[in-house]
Every structure is written in structure tokens, then in C-alpha cells.
Amino acid sequence: MKKESTTDNEKNRVAVASLLVAIFLTIFKAVVGFATGSLGIISEAMHSEMDVFAAGLTAFSVRLSSKPPDEKHNFGHGKIENISALIEGLILVATCVWIVWEAVERLTGKETHIVVNFWSFFVVIFAIIVDLNRAKILSKMAKKHKSQASEADALHFSSDILSSGVVLLGLILTYFNIHTADSIAALFVSMIVLYMSVKLSLRAIDELLDRAPVELKKDVEGIITGISEVKYVHYIKIRTSGSTTFIDLNIHLYPNLTIEEAHQIAHRVENEIKKAYSNCQIHIHQEPESKHE
Known about the structure:
293 residues, mainly alpha, Alpha-lytic protease prodomain-like, Alpha-Beta Plaits, 2 domains, 3-stranded mixed β-sheet
């Protein structure tokens, strides 16, 4: 059995750590929320419960997606990350609906009772600091390993920072007896999060449907046309599965080349593409130039 790579181990380690932090924050917010009677902090605890689910889903999907190809899944299990990203995007949409609902109820007269004390401020500020750190680590991980699940998790925790900021603003304004500004801010934040979550969901759907990345196709074509031995390239087909990119293409070569020479040129084409895009699998079909019309 193939051992997990350093990349997979790092992704799994970060995902599990994110899950543990989410569980801790949920318990911390719930305890403080019920102890102070703060509906804002209690709602944040409910929001963090979604984080536990999201982080658990990411940890689960990253571990499964790192499994090597098998007889039933010839292209690996990378699509699991895309499915995870889609589910998490839908969770974010649901969160936005909840924020809007709560904000409208408060603006239309829903009574709120918030006890503003040291722990009220501490738990929210602490959560913001933790989420900032988590989002930074996961964003770096997503860029480094091209992991959509980690990107989705980073986006989720970024939205938590915004929602925690709204609660913090509500606590401050409540201290000064202003009770509507936090609801207006919540509506504004929910629109930003809604835009990001819809964008994330659409991207996940595109990758699940194997939509061809246009810019990547142009880059690959540009790389190949820079190799003088290749007379023509066509039928470039590209799709992604998790962090892996699959590339199929046809190249036309001089017909008098030996099989070994044609193989060496194809090998060079593959190496040039992998210099720009390391985590990819490439299949190259070679044809004699005389067949090109």
C-alpha cells in the first residue's frame, strides 16, 4: 500500500488541528454565552457548531482524497475535495440566511438581553484572533497544495471573523445603548459572505463537471509551441480532481523520427509542463506531421 506523502500528511495535520480548535471554540462560546445571557455569543456558539461540521468534513475529505488511485477510481479520489467545498459553500449560504433572519428580527423589535462584561468581550476577541490564524494557515495550505477543501475551510473561518466582528460591534454598541447598528452591520456582512460562498460553490460545481480551465489551456499550449521539435499541438483536454490536474494532448512530429526520438520529445514536453504545474498527470499522443491538415 502506498504511504501518505509529506504533502498529504501536512494537509491532514492542519485539517485535524482545525477541527479540534472548532470544537474548543464552540464549547467556550456556549459556556460564556449561557453564563452571561448574551444571545449574540450564544448565536456565535451555534455558528461555531457549523464550523465543527465543516472542519470535520474537511479533515475527512482531505484524508479520503489523498488515497491513491485504485481499480474502481482510476483517477484517484480528488473529487471528494470538490464535493466537500460544495457542501461547505452551501453551509455558508445557510449561515447567511440565518444572519439576515436574525438581523431583521432585531431591527423589527426582537428583544435582546446582553450582559456586557469582561468574558463577553474576551471570548469574541479570542475567537477572532484564533480564526485569523486558522484562516491564514489554511489559505497558505490551499495555495501551496492547490487544495480546494482547505480553501473552503479558510473561507469559512474568514466569514467567522466577520460574524464575530458583528457580535463584538453589537457588544460595544449595547454598552453605549445603541441597539440597531449591529443588525445593519450583520446584513452588510451577510451580503459579502453570500457572494463569496456562491462563488466558491459555483467553482466546485465547475470542477465536479470537469469544466476546462481556459487560462491553463492557453498556458499549456504556449509552453508546447515553444518547443521547436513539436510542429503542431491540438486536442488539449484538461480537467482537475482535487489538487491534481489531468492533461491530455496530441502533438505532431516529423515522420522520420525513431520511436525513441519521439518518446524523448514527448518526455521533454511533459517536463516543461510540469515545471509550471508540478502536480499534474499528462498523457501525450504522438502523430506524424504528414497527417496534419
